[in-house]
Prior knowledge:
By secondary structure, the protein is α/β, with parallel strands linked by helices.
Amino acid sequence: MRTLSARTVDQLLGPDRLARPAYRSLAAGLRRLIADGRILVDTRLPSERALMSQLGLSRTTVGAAFDVLRAEGFIVTRRGSGSVTALPEDRSGLALSRAGLVPSDVPDDVIDLTYAVLPAAAGLTAAYERALEHLPRHLATSGYHPRGLPELREALAGWYEGRGLPTDPGDIVITGGAHAALSAVLRAVLDPGDRVLLETPTYPNAIVGVRRSSLRPVPFPIDPLGWDPEHLELALRQGGARLAYLVPDFQNPTGRLMSSDERVSTSQVLRRTGSTPVIDETFVELGLDTAPPAPFAASSPEAITLGSSGKAWWGGLRVGWVRAPHALVAPILEARHSLDLGTAVLEQLVLVELLRSGRTLLDDRRAEARRRRDAMVAALRTHVPDWRFAVPPGGLNLWCELPVDRGDALSRVGEAAGVRLARGAQFGTDGGMDRFVRIPYSVPADEADDVGRRLANAWTMALESRSTREPATPLVA
């Protein structure tokens, strides 16, 4: 069972003194941490005596706070285990996170904020035209190319080389997007019932992919402590995860960027615990204020790296890839065959063209994403000033903390106000996170203020809503 020290609880509660009555403030602070996924469900809390000593409170105060949380369903007492965190039945979100994601049509008058993706990059049409010139020589073949086109694997190896990571083209497998790449890796490396460490919050499709592969997620909170090596090692040892899925470059949804030192310390922890790192670099080309450090695999030769053309170039360019240690290429290739037989040849040729001549286009891409981010930041600060968020140095998302836990209600009423939103619970392995909402800055800059107004209307409606209807579970990308 996961355990939490009194010192960690003190860190998570923050430096502010508890308002009186202290037992209610302590209960509220712990309730918020559990509901937000910062203290995970099924975690054994420190003893009342340990908390009393760490927080400078009386035994009566700590005991009264635990009694409040026990009555509300946020902790349960188990013989031999002490006080263990839980979520009340109506807040668990477990059916949601195990059910998968359901696509549906978006009404014409609704702005869809469930996709963190930009329209096609300028110059993409020209890349398709150049690719068509090379297509005829492939038409006499089967067209499957299970490893991927040799010229694309060579271009990607050169791209990694330019980022400081020497790569053999033979260690790359082309897939139909990063999600397909993750599915192939999970099948190749793990057995049903194995455990996978997932950041929380994290990409919803990764959670679904892990569960659909009959694997067990081990959540690791990265907010507010980031990729703290002490807590990461504790989570890996307690959870027994054989694989760790991490998004170090503008993490989805928080936008966090793992520093060079964090990459080294994280790779050392993973090596000590025998957990294979699977690194999702989907957003790596979208550094808006700063370029990412050297790739994670530069300090972790055993790492498996996933990449995709979707965020950098266009979501409709369904080309992804796996860069893996040579010994894992054959198992990944075999597992990939259980999913599909190859990636579309024309799209692979398009990506070759973009990798060879698209650096200027990427500069323009980042400039456009920066304009959209800054406009959305201004709109939210104007229209929903009580929402809190950190401005990320890259990626495409704002991870917004709401002043009260009405995230489910917000997603439920959103379309009535003209916006479709993903639930915060979709980004957590064990539900909760009802005080969070992901807002992608994917709309044009001149539309951001309108989005802010719609969100303000939706928020007013959410605060007034008394509906208990289950919110929708939209497809998230």
